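Reviewers of the previous submission asked for a worked example of the structure-prediction workflow described in the proposal, so we include one complete record here. The input consisted solely of the amino acid sequence. No template or homolog information was supplied to the procedure at any stage.
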Amino acid sequence: MTRAVIPAGSGTPLAPFSPGMQADNVVYVSGTLPFDKDNNVVFPDDAEAQTRHVLEIIKSILEAAGATMADVTFNHVFLTHWGDYAAINKVYAEYFPGEKPARYCVQVGLVKPGARVEIASIAHKRG
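From that input alone, the workflow returned the following structure tokens.
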């Protein structure tokens, strides 16, 4: 079974993609940016607030697929400034308090000025 996962109240993506895709018990969450429903950057100078916003969106996508943050096995983390690394990790640790998912983190340019973090996730639903 493969299906798009689009939480209620989601805005229209900037490009042709679904916020998430479920294939059997695996949920793939697209790169999630700190955007509001109109694709405007939120909290442009606050990496912690942006990270929290991004992880809340990821959480809503997972929940729409019947998964939780505890089901996340891998995260792809993109940041625009290495100086934000500690702030991003501080919030990240709140959302993954137990065993941490595997991940990588790279410095990149993101699609809109002011966006400081983007995260994509893979989760394996239990049961």
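The mean pLDDT is 96. We consider this example representative of the routine output the project will generate in years two and three.
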